[in-house]
């Protein structure tokens, strides 16, 4: 294989360089850029046309000289070495070690762009992953092989929630191998320190592999980081037969890096300046989750994104909602009331939940009691709207009962300590305690058998 080296650049534009007069160069090909000072930087081909290549430089373009910089095209895409020894390690966004563990030695290197899962080869997701958080486990259960994003906002505790899920997540069946791939994009140094310390102190770091891209790292590295993390997840899931949970935060930072790069390339912008291919780019990441027939492992994704101005119609949450199988929405009003995690259950859902809960999975009463809680809390919102007009004292006894249920639901069921790990049994028992505020006649989403077995509430019909 003949590797050609070219001397001189045509243009430097932010994190991009342009080289002309090249031949036999492919899209996504890796590049070595050597400035006059001699240290080598990595790059990746973004665009090729008419003997001209646009290259993104991972380490940035500071210090590059148009006339004296040398460019070498390596004739292969970006690849990373992978083995089971990556568990317990901390890397940067391009898989270089940030800890003291040294480089990863492996028999093979793996293309970070991955390959799409053949839809025919996909296995339908079943079985749940327990997070220890009642709002998620009880009402929007995470299923193995699912992609379930968290929609948050600036200042909301999504980082704490991500760390808590990483510490507490486990399979319903503890006999199988389980691990977490944690990808952080555009986070601050103190946030990175918080994640690492949180996992070390709780003793789960040995079961986690971290890829961290800091806010002051080159933005182009932010685009590579989730691909690196997902490649590691695919290796562990489909070659080491493990069940992998991938947590990626923050997908808005990733999308903004994509927008910056698109603008540098002079592409025609779409909604709010994002590139027109944002949907397909996000889909290329999210669709790497799932289960494959004939393979024991699985990849489950929790992408976390912050909605600018808490706007759920912003392009990033909007497109994410189309691609993924539900969402968990954090609400600022609940957070200001002191509720943690501040999950607004009404716009939140898990579309695959119905097939991974109930008898043989969680508990027989799970589908009914979760539906009953949703219905009751939805009615609470109607009662609150009415109370804001006529006052609480003028409400009927039935409506006051629902108002009390709403307060108990938020204070007892939703609200839990940041280190509290509730089992699925505790969560479901707590749900029955909440609906015990209502008489039996109000429970129209659960069967008579379930009421007889689990209900411990009022026997009267209540007064309307």
TrEMBL record:
**Is Cytoplasm one of the keywords?**
no
- Record has Transport as a keyword: yes
Q: Which residues form the ATPase F1/V1/A1 complex alpha/beta subunit N-terminal domain?
A: 10-74
Please name the GO terms of the biological process aspect recorded for this protein, alphabetically.
proton motive force-driven plasma membrane ATP synthesis
Q: Which residues cross the membrane?
A: none
All copies of domain ATPase F1/V1/A1 complex alpha/beta subunit nucleotide-binding, residue ranges: 132-350
In this chain the ATP synthase A/B type C-terminal domain maps to: 355-455
**Which CDD domains is this protein grouped with?**
ATP-synt_V_A-type_beta_C (cd18112), ATP-synt_V_A-type_beta_N (cd18118), V_A-ATPase_B (cd01135)
Q: Which UniProt keywords apply?
A: ATP synthesis, Hydrogen ion transport, Ion transport, Transport
Query: What are this entry's molecular-function GO terms?
Result: ATP binding; proton-transporting ATP synthase activity, rotational mechanism; proton-transporting ATPase activity, rotational mechanism
The family this protein is said to belong to: Belongs to the ATPase alpha/beta chains family.
The entry's function note states:
Produces ATP from ADP in the presence of a proton gradient across the membrane. The V-type beta chain is a regulatory subunit.
- Entry protein name: V-type ATP synthase beta chain
Q: Which organism is it from?
A: Iocasia fonsfrigidae
